[in-house]
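Can anyone check this?
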Amino acid sequence: MERWNDCDAVERHPEKLGGAWVFRGTRVPLAALFGNLRDGASIDQVLEWFPGVQRSQVEAVLAHEAMAAAHLEAL
């Protein structure tokens, strides 16, 4: 998942959650966002459950994922 390298809202470090991509400045993995959205949670609920995550970070991650999906469709 190297596509996250150019998204400023996320980071990963080998010593933080085993190198999983997390929201910058937190220990909240991106998988928490996508899993909760998949299960029917709203963005507001995710932000309530993970108070260290900022709305702008969620928006940036979703926009980044949408661009990646559009790119794959174009191939």
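Reply from J.R.: I decoded it. The beta strands are 10-11, 22-23.
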